[in-house]
Amino acid sequence: MTDVRHDATDLIGAPVELSVVIPMFNEEEALPALVARLRPVLDGTGETYEVVAVDDGSADRTAGQLEDLRAVWPQLRVVRLARNSGHQAALTAGLHHARGRYAASLDADLQDPPEKIPEMLALARSRRLDIVYGVRVNRATDTGFKRRTAGAYYWLVRRLVGSHVPAQAGDFRLLSRNVLDALRALPDQPQVYRLLVPWFGFPSGEVAYHRDARVAGDTKYPLRKMVLLAVDSVIGFSVAPLRLATWLGSLAFLVCLAVITYTLAVYAAGATTPGWTSLIIAVLFVGAVQLICLGVLGEYLGRVYTAVQQRPTYYVAEDTGTAAAPMAGIAWPGPRRGRDSTLDSLGGPAGP
């Protein structure tokens, strides 16, 4: 099958120094404030740049506002997805289509300050870094519940995936062209970038910032999507859940041996109901063996399942930076959850 992703990135114009990738889903209320803060920052850098706004199937006036802005902001480029595909898929589309030597990813809600982008770029150049993470040092504007769940998320993934994952670093980061090319070269699979990017091991640094309140509109990342992100992170980068099934089966088997010993002793003492001994031994033994077998099979099945799911993560309906639109931009994912993913997968700021 032809890889249409590369056809989709035959872009018009010379390469730029900086791309700013912004996934958007129903951000009509936040968009004016975003432009008012972002454009002066980028114009003030003196660098050639592009802003890759990825419209993730918005149902409000986000797409129309972006088209209006293109008339007065030449550096604005709109990548419109054919349907709502989710935040990480929209981010993938933007990073795949970015043509800058560096690419910064930013959410449209302004909780991550665009004023830090020049600092990230300067740090990457001065220290020859390929990755610069935006690390949150203060989340006072978040609710107590959000702070606690985010803390639990980063504690869990660092324990399971490794301490190389920066604590409190979300999807606000700067990537060099080396990292962007490495991301494109990976086998097609679902991506959780806050875990995938550190996995490469490229030279990296950090820029600290205070997390602001959402500038306008409602959060696009409710508790349900936070839980799904945590599940994707653990399953996509660790076999711990599968091994847990194996350990549970082994524990059940040991408990089974202890209960067998007890039931035989009770039977020998004549203090049991006829037939109870053989029944409880059979149920416990078969259940323990089944859990062990399911755990072992799950180790292999989980890997095979993610490899054979070849549904497109995103489809580009229009890219204002390509020679001909619409063009297709397809990445191949693993499993999707729930009902039809168009209705069940909402884009938005990327979780904890």
Automatic annotation (TrEMBL):
Membrane-spanning ranges: 251-270, 276-301
A matching Pfam family: Glycos_transf_2
Intracellular or extracellular location(s): Membrane
EC number(s) reported in the record: 2.4.1.83
Superkingdom per UniProt: Bacteria
Gene3D superfamilies in alphabetical order: Spore Coat Polysaccharide Biosynthesis Protein SpsA, Chain A
Record family assignment: Belongs to the glycosyltransferase 2 family.
Protein name according to UniProt: Dolichol-phosphate mannosyltransferase
Species of provenance: Streptomyces echinatus
